[in-house]
Design brief:
Layout lengths: L11 E6 L3 H17 L7 E6 L5 H11 L4 E9 L5 H20 L3 E8 L2 H5 L4 H22 L2
Parallel strand pairs: 1-2, 1-3, 3-4
Length: 150
């Protein structure tokens, strides 16, 4: 059985897109509620705003390069339209988020929703909190592994 998550002392960076702002605002709200529940102090959280999901990976990369964060979280909402653009944005934003995690060794939780419609996205507002839990869990795992290597 996993031990309860505790985010006390962690520095967390969040990058949220402004596209589909109503949905993203709900995801961000739930993310901040979860951070508080897990004991992460507000002053240990930095949130950046970018235009859309494709801009999230670059902002995450800048945050990762700083070496200041224990975990990062991507938050956005991509909703299917009538063109192929949905697939491009969904796939490339996910690839970019993963690339940052692998390049910098910093946990990056992907809270970018990819849904068929707005109703599906609104029904998944708790994904913001879920992304925070993943980020905290991975930050703690990384810290344990680093401690074992000393």
């Amino acid at each position: 059985m996993a031990e309860p998550l505790n985010g006390a002392g962690l520095r967390v960076g969040i990058v949220a897109s402004r596209f589909n702002e109503e949905i993203v605002a709900k995801l961000v709200e739930r993310a901040h509620q979860e951070l508080a529940r897990l004991g992460v102090r507000r002053e240990d959280v930095t949130q950046l705003s970018v235009a859309g999901a494709l801009e999230i990976p670059l902002a995450l990369q800048w945050m990762a390069q700083s070496g200041h964060y224990d975990a990062l979280v991507a938050i956005g909402a991509v909703i299917r339209g009538d063109t192929y653009h949905f697939e491009v944005v969904s796939n490339e934003s996910a690839r970019g988020v993963m690339d940052v995690a692998l390049e910098f060794g910093v946990p990056v939780a992907n809270g970018i929703l990819t849904t068929d419609d707005e109703a599906q996205a609104l029904a998944r507002a708790d994904k913001g909190a879920e992304a925070i839990r993943v980020a905290v869990e991975m930050a703690r795992l990384r810290a344990r592994l680093q401690e074992q290597q000393r």
